[in-house]
Amino acid sequence: MAQAEADLGASTKAGLAQGVGARLTRKEDDRFLRGRGQYVADIRVAGLQDIAFVRSPLAHARIKAIRVPEPYRDVVFTAADLIGVKPIRAVSGLPGFKISEQPVLATGKVRHVGELVAMCVAPTRAEAEDIAAAVMLELEELPAVTDMRKARDEGTALVHEHWGDNIFLESAFEVDIAAALDAPIKVTREITTARQCMSPLEGRGVVATFDHRLDQLTLWTGAQMPHIVRNGLSDCLDIAQGQIRIISPDIGGGFGHKGILLPEEVCLAWLAIHKGLSVRWIEDRREHLTASANCREHHYNITVYADRDGRLRAIDCEATVDSGAYSSYPFSACLEAAQVASILPGPYRMPAYRCRTFSVATNKCPILPYRGVARTGVCFALEIMLDAVAVEAGIDPGEVRLRNLVSPDQMPFDNITKKHFDSGNYPQALRRALAAIDVPAVRARQRAKEPDGRLIGVGLAIYCEQAAHGTSVYAGWGIPMVPGHEQANARMTPDGGLEIRVGVHSHGQGLETTLAQIANEILGIDTAKVRVVHGDTALTPYSTGTWGSRSMVMAGGAVATACIEIGERAKMIGAKLLQLDPAMVSLRDGLVRGPNSSIGLSDIAHTWYRRPQDLPPDVDPGGLESTSGYKPRRDSGTFSYAAHAVTVAVDPDLGEVELLDYVIVEDGGVLVNPMIVDGQIYGGLAQGIGTALYEEMPFDRAGQPLATTLADYLLPGPTEVPEPRLDHMETPSPYTMFGVKGIGEGGAIAPPAAIANAVNDALRPLGVELLHSPMSPRRIIEAILKARAAQGSAV
Amino acid sequence: MKAASFAYRRPSDFQTALAMMADAGGTAKIIAGGQSLGPMLNLRLVAPELIIDISGLSELKQAERDGDDLVIGACITHGDIEDERIPDVTRGAMQRVAAAIAYRAVRNRGTIGGSISHADPAADWVSALSALRAKVTLRSPGGERHLAIEKFVTGALETALRPGEIVASIRVPMMRPSARWGYVKACRKPGEFAHAIAAVLIDSEIAASRAVIGAVDAVPIVLGDAAALFGGRVTCDFGRHFDARAADKLLLQAGITDTVNRHIHVAVLERAVREAAA
After folding, report:
1. CA of A746, closest CA in chain B: separation in Å?
2. Mutating which of A50, A282, A781, A785 best tests the B interface, going by the most B Cβ atoms within 10 A?
3. Are residues A496 and A437 in the same domain?
4. Under an 8 A CB cutoff, do B1 and A129 touch?
């Protein structure tokens, strides 16, 4: 640490900027790279016992009996023990939404494999698993609902009987498409994305204990949204929020999986409160894959109408999302499908548009929001369709996009679904990507043929990412969580340091660095002397937390606002100490400066805290601490975007895809730390490649998840992720502090679409078009054999 | 998940290990590198009463020439072979197979004896050693017996090991200078189980040809005489006579009805032949 500080000191002395725009190395990496991060599984509490859960082995069944062997009566708990505990309810205010009640431990029925049925307490996890194995379930198996399309049919089995069907929500958007129906180009496709599991390096985990001195539950949990977990626990357990303290320590990746209230959290909290136990549950990979973390499964029937020149006339779409058995808290079961209708058109102009969506209940784990929420599927569907239009029109795919993208002179732009695009130059991003990937060179290589028989293809995709959308957007959804003003607390310490407290959470985003950079930008305090405190409801202002690529816009804005407030007060004190009129001083590089004299912020802090006798009597009693709230001038969100371009080689015999070159031209507004943004994009790209080529959680007809270990659930590793060539554009948002935009999720959105378009470009000579992710060897070979058979029969 | 409780013993010599195994009467499992058994224990797919750790037995970590053959102790790791810490009689073929097994971390601990004892159809050694005409030496307190690898592996995760027997060593015959070797597997990333494996050993000088098609959900298909894949005769230009239809027919006869699987297996076999012919 001393060395790190010395290094930082050296860079400061060398005059390197640390504020907005600096490629500062990450403060938190010192502990992470030395293996000193502290995760939930590292938490030690005296007398800690381990929990193993009895989980449903069936996807859909009536519980006839739960038989607990006599010796284990006192250490096994079922729903019958949880008197007064309410089920998890994640409602939506959208009209027609049907409410699911997710019991903390199953009652009556089990609705997915892995659903919690009982909890077993033992000194070690292995012993708890022994007990769990001894608990006998008597289940009456019911037909499982596993196909979201068939789930909409009459007479199918019902996940929630009292609904009468399996539809959480049907939603629609329409601008009359009648005028487009005679368009010369009409392409129709059925497109799907597989169900995935998010797979952060660290799974979920919970440690719970009760502190009798404070009359308070302390619950450590890997949570992106600790204050929201507190809301949910308070609702389910019916105890005062003041009796709950949520601590979210270091997190090994969240991606949305850790933005959800878990029944496991409620269970462990109950054991700590009602049984006085200190307990721990650490999710293992099998639980993660089979009983949690489901995401992404979309189905599209989509038709695009266009003119001969490729200009869009209309899109007509029916989208279905497999929401799983329950509505997860707080985002709800319709988060994905209902968003599809509003985000499908993206940055493209079109005069007409119709989209119906269905959020369907099935006997699978609840679908959870995963990096890019809904956008990855939407981008996959729409960008594949644009290539299909390009082929039909005989126009280059890049040109088709250029003819339809919103132009910079139309900004700010309200698209057909009334999404408000704040700023950007989409055509320029695409042109830069096209130039970098060098399409003519790829075409030449395609003509020359590869010596190894592989086929070369180039593909494009563009997406936009609405981020940091606020009150007005979420109030309309009517979900249990609506973000308001984001608050930050900033407090100077007597030695001139700065402490920042935020309710968002940093779990890979590098916020301990970037928020310090924002403070440095305002106050000029060396980032080494700025500490960012987060992840503890007892220490931080209320916040909906880190989700929706919002933290830099919202918490960054709040930190800036709080620092500006402190700066103003410090200027008043400094002016008095310099015996100057406050109007004559300014604050720069940590000094309050007058025409001929200056005083450092640390001297001002020393005076405020330790020599108050030197302060003037009319000093602001708020001192050098401020909790300030922030909202962008307009809360409809920032729109980041990127153009991805990729060159692939497809092996037509083995169905394997190699990524030869990958270009990303990204515009995330003003970047606080471009190096960290690069890292965000690399990570997102890796996940996008997983969606495109590897990751899939298949289910059999009985609803059994089939990829139960990482031997079956394939994740891309370092050898599968090429180093992309990145190019940044920085179009400021007109609505946010510094012009920043949210960028956290974007990297994961476009790769499946870009790679699919490249694979299709490569395989087009064979008459093959892939419309399903992941594009596994099996899917590719199947498509090639099918095309061959069709051509054979045509001959 | 965590493993169910078991007893653990680490004998200091092979005789003691054999005696322990005999005493346990089928309730014990041998562990060497633990690269397959470890996860299986944790997933509770196996729950032996006793684990006998043979990884410390120096006599199983020897590899030496015996005439033209190489005798490789069961506890030689893939990494030992990859790094050429043991002699070679296969003109580098085994070194190249070893170097492509899973990840380096797996190769550091995983052993050749453990791999064939586990008998995963997708494992490299099961197919490669069958093609190399290797034999396995099994020891029990009663003595020793020798089996060709393809007789030793009797099914997916099934072997001819009798209760009380332990794999002691693998005997690999010398590859003739005129022999040509090809080994190809299909998997999308390092560490993924192979979807198809093909190993060929062809010596047109003596009109010998051997081909193994592995990762077929069961024992590998071993063709002691692979002439049928080359129009009935193995000549020095065998690479130009590979008959994909014959290979496809053979796979169909072996019960592989899935056309995509067959397509990939044939493509992999063709590449192994091409590699051998190159």
Report:
1. 25
2. A781
3. no
4. yes
| Amino acid at residue number A600 | G
**B191, B259, B264 ranked by CB distance to A777: nearest:** B264
Structure confidence by residue, pLDDT tens digits, B220-240: 999 999 999 999 999 999 999
Q: Is the pLDDT of residue A13 over 50?
A: no
- Cβ separation A720–B188 shorter than 8 A: yes
First to last CA, chain B: 48
Q: Do A777 and B192 touch (CB under 8 A)?
A: no
Distance of CA A539 to the CA centre of its chain: 24
pTM of the model: 0.96
Q: How confident is the model at residue A31 (pLDDT cuts 50, 70, 90)?
A: very high
Topology of domain B7-53, per CATH?
3.30.43
User: Which residues constitute the domain of residue A9?
Assistant: 2-37+485-630
Final residue of a domain: which of A630, A654, A673? A630
Q: Where are the domains of chain B?
A: 7-53, 58-172, 195-277
- Residue of A767, A704, A655, A760 lying closest to A290 (CA atoms): A704
Q: What is the CATH number of the domain that holds A378?
A: 3.30.365.10
Task: List the beta bridge partners of residue A361.
Answer: A324
A354 touches chain B (CB under 8 A): no
3-state secondary structure of A438: coil
Return the CATH fold of B58-172.
Answer: 3.30.465
Burial class, B108, CB count within 10 angstroms (exposed 0-12 / middle 13-18 / buried 19+): middle
Average pLDDT over residues A356-368: 97
Q: Of A362, A322, A325, A355, which Cα lies nearest the Cα of A340?
A: A355
Residues A453 and A510 in one domain: no
Residues A531 and A491 in one domain: yes
The single-letter code of the amino acid at B112 is I
CB contact under 8 A, B186 and A719: no
Residue A713 falls inside a structural domain: yes
pLDDT at A27: 96
CA distance B133 to chain A (A): 28
Q: Please choose, from the candidates A30, A38, A44, A10, the residue with its C-alpha nearest in 3D space to the C-alpha of residue A531.
A: A30
Does any domain span residue A511? yes
Long-range CB contacts (< 8 A, 24+ apart) of B98-101? B98/B124, B100/B124, B100/B185, B100/B190, B101/B125
Interface probe with B: pick from A280, A650, A653, most Cβ of B within 10 Å: A653
Decide which of A630, A647, A666 is a domain's last residue.
A630
Q: Do B5 and A284 touch (CB under 8 A)?
A: no
Query: Quick one: A626 and A728 in the same domain?
Result: no
Paired tokens of A536: 């503890």
**Contacts of residue B132, Cβ cutoff 8 Å, sequence gap at least 6:** B90, B93, B94, B172, B173, B175, B199, B201
Shared-domain flag, residues A624 and A690: no
What's residue A16's pLDDT? 65
Which residues between 161 and 220 in chain B have a beta carbon less than 8 angstroms from any beta carbon of chain A? Answer: 186, 188-193, 195
Q: Is A767 found in the same domain as A647? A: yes
Chain B residues lying within 8 Å of A129, measured CB to CB: 1-2, 4, 44
Q: What is the DSSP string of A446-473?
A: HHH--TT--EEEEEEEEEEEEES--HHH
Domains of chain A: total? 2
Let me know whether A440 and A531 are in one domain.
Answer: no
DSSP state of A652: T
Would you call A720 an interface residue with chain B, using a CB distance cutoff of 8 Å?
Answer: yes
Query: Whole-angstrom Cα distance, residue B259 to residue B278?
Result: 28
Contact B264 A714 (CB under 8 A): no
* Residues A788 and A645 occupy one common structural domain: yes
* A603 at B interface, C-beta within 8 A: no
Predicted confidence at residue A10, as pLDDT, reads 39
Is the residue at A557 inside a domain? Answer: yes
The Cα diameter of chain B in Å comes to 58
